[in-house]
Amino acid sequence: MDADANAHVLEGGGAAATGSAGGLAYWGPAVAVSLAMFIGVIDSTLMNVAIPSIVADLDTTVTVVQGAISFYAMVMAALILPGGKLSSMYGIRRLMTATLLVYGVGTTLAALSWNVVVLYVGWSVIEGAAAAVLLPLTFTVLLVSYEGADRAKALGILAGVNAAGAAFGPLLGGAVTTFASWRWGFGVEVLIVLVALAFVRYLPEESLSETRTKLDVGGTLLSVVGTTALVAGVLLAGRYGWISARRPFAVGDVRLDLFGASPTVWLVGFGIVVFAAFVQYERRVEREGGSPLVPVRLLSNGPFTAGIATNAARSLVLAGFIFVVPVFLQSGAGYTAFETGVAMLPFSVATFVASIFTTDWRRFVAPKLLIQGGVVLMGLGVLALVSQTALDATVAQLAVPMALVGLGLGLVMAQLIDMTLSSVDQRDSAAASGLLNATMMLGYSFGTAIVGTYLLRGFYGGVVDGVLTAAGAGVSASDRGALVIALEDAAETATKETQRAVLDGLAPAQRELLADVFDAAIVQAQRETLLLLALFVLLVLLVSTLLPGGETDSGP
């Protein structure tokens, strides 16, 4: 897609090019894609606070529901690169309409789920696939519809919506779960889809390329296989370990000999090899004059690659944060889903406000410094939460740490998205949007899996250690590991409901002892997990040093 093609898009169907700068037609594309972004992001956070309710309603476990969240992110990550390519193949308006309709079908099916399989199909598969098309399309439309200060404003709004979707989800999910049912969370998404469809008419009809391009089938297959292997490996790490196998690995009734290694090692290694082959394949397609899924010149664009790396690390932190905090507040502190949403409200509001209203700060301070300042605020907020982690923690005590994390996140996103996408030519906007979203979803999936696994493993280990200490028993490290695995397999005890079910079957003295063990274990596991998150924040800060920096934006 070249500059002439972009002009053709705007002249032919883009109201943004001809409408009044203050009119609905002018900002219609921004409204449409912001709504699309909102439902794509909120899906990953809406149900976090509803995990215990879903577990009870569908008679499943926290691990299974965590898997649905991670699988949703995995499907999006696997399909976003080819999904981003579709905007160069089909008319934008038609593509957005069709994708929103498919998304509506998926969220309706998820709302009606009568078992976990249906939930996975509707939520993780259908919605995940539709979101893979919607998310890269949102950035691309703004890049070709607006210029200068308006583009920065539109991308800032979209970044705010992105962050707000992640932040507002727990509140909305908590409200519908407490006062109605978690199923209504998906019902709300259906309404948002209908509103988004009303604004699709402001999008250009043409594709983002005057020349009809073909889908890079080979690149698509390699990217899907590589992403699936990477994320599947991370998901299996919780059960089988990261390097050495914690238990035998079997597919059906067939036990596989992996030489004592976890399947995670093999899958992640395989994924890396596939992505190396993907890069080589894309180079060959480009040399032969074809249309690669990802132009190789993007991978050699230093500012762009630094931006997507920083954004991926930021996504990992956000995913871990919005998973472990709601789980602890409900499973440890005994909050209801709605109370959990209220506790996270300072985070939600601060994230949205900072994303929307700090876009113009780059006129006075270099964007890189603003991003790094935001990362520091996130780290301070996470560390403050460690000190406030207790079973009797109140909403007021959590407000300042939550707000610090939100302010930092919003400040990062207000600058990072525009800085990253503005570093590429408009002809590469679709591919850049797809790559940005793909790495973001990979970070999100890794964050949920890594941090979620760390929390649950710490909790189960704490329960075993507490029981052994109370009994005055000593066991070897291998025997302790076996006990942890046995506890994981015997009963899911990471929610208040299942803990209560276990305790009800015990004698009073045993019940009191084990209740104290549960409480101590969840508090300790949460503190250690937050410290792990703080290390990941440092990783974001380290990666951000690769961003271009120094100059302020003195433009209008």
Automatic annotation (TrEMBL):
Q: Which GO terms describe its molecular function?
A: transmembrane transporter activity
One Pfam family this sequence matches: MFS_1
Membrane topology type, per the record? Multi-pass membrane protein
InterPro entries hit by this protein:
MFS (IPR011701), MFS_dom (IPR020846), MFS_trans_sf (IPR036259)
Keywords from UniProt, A to Z, are: Membrane, Transmembrane, Transmembrane helix, Transport
Q: Which SUPFAM superfamilies match?
A: MFS general substrate transporter
Any transmembrane segments, and where?
24-42, 62-83, 95-114, 120-143, 155-176, 182-203, 215-238, 258-281, 302-329, 369-386, 398-417, 530-550
Q: Does the keyword Transmembrane helix apply?
A: yes
Q: What is its main location?
A: membrane
Any one cellular-component term (Gene Ontology)? membrane
Recorded hits in Gene3D superfamilies, A to Z, give: MFS general substrate transporter like domains (1.20.1250.20), Multidrug resistance protein D (1.20.1720.10)
Annotated source species: Haloferax gibbonsii (strain ATCC 33959 / DSM 4427 / JCM 8863 / NBRC 102184 / NCIMB 2188 / Ma 2.38)
The name on file for this protein is Transmembrane efflux protein
The listed locations are: Membrane
| Domain Major facilitator superfamily (MFS) profile residues, every copy | 29-552
